[in-house]
Design goal:
Layout (H helix, E strand, L loop, with lengths): L1 E8 L2 H15 L5 E3 L6 E10 L1 H16 L4 E11 L7 E8 L1 H17 L13 E6 L5 H10 L7 E3 L1 E8 L6 E9 L4
Antiparallel strand pairs: 1-3, 1-8, 2-6, 4-5, 4-7, 5-6, 8-9
Helix pairs in contact: 2-3
The structure holds ligand 3AM.
Length: 187
Amino acid sequence: MVRTFLAIDLPAEQKKILEKIQNRWKSFRAGIRWVPPDRMHLTLKFLGDINTFQLKQVIDTTRNICSNHSSFNLSLGAAGVFPGTRRPRVLWIGLTGDTRDLILLHDHIEEHLAAIGFPPESRRYSPHLTMGRVRSSRQISRLIDAVYDEQIRSAPFQVSEVTIYESILTPESPVYTVLDRCPLACS
Ligand code: 3AM
């Protein structure tokens, strides 16, 4: 079985910006488990454990969907916390730019993967980059103020492929391995 998810990778320049933001947030010394910047990605769909037959179907389906979608541009957007400030669990950075293309791509993936047996998410898709996960309430309210005050500027980056990842859970942090890269059509 392979623990699988579909994601959009970020260019090095955006990861650098995210690292700088994360370093500012780290200075509050709150109880957060931080996502290492080199592992940050935009999740499109988490599939969980699938077998090799299903993996082949997922690769074929995703490749087919991507070949029918043009590449598009995104930029880093405002920061926030999920599910809300009262019980924060995830600190994130949002996206701006061609978000309608992103949602359309996500919806097609949901629809076509549902047709091969993967149930769609019940929650609405909220595209985000996870920066860290809250582990304790230590210094959290000061950090949350800083999250909402963050002014993020980034140049647009082109999204030209969807990556299929294996995620192996370890006691420290998940290890991600690329299983396939599915190119989007040229825009
Ligand atoms: O991109 P983010 O960090 O939001 O939280 C996990 C991560 O999302 C999510 O899949 C991404 C790659 O691991 N994930 C992990 N387990 C999940 C589950 N059971 C899950 N998403 C939904 N259901």
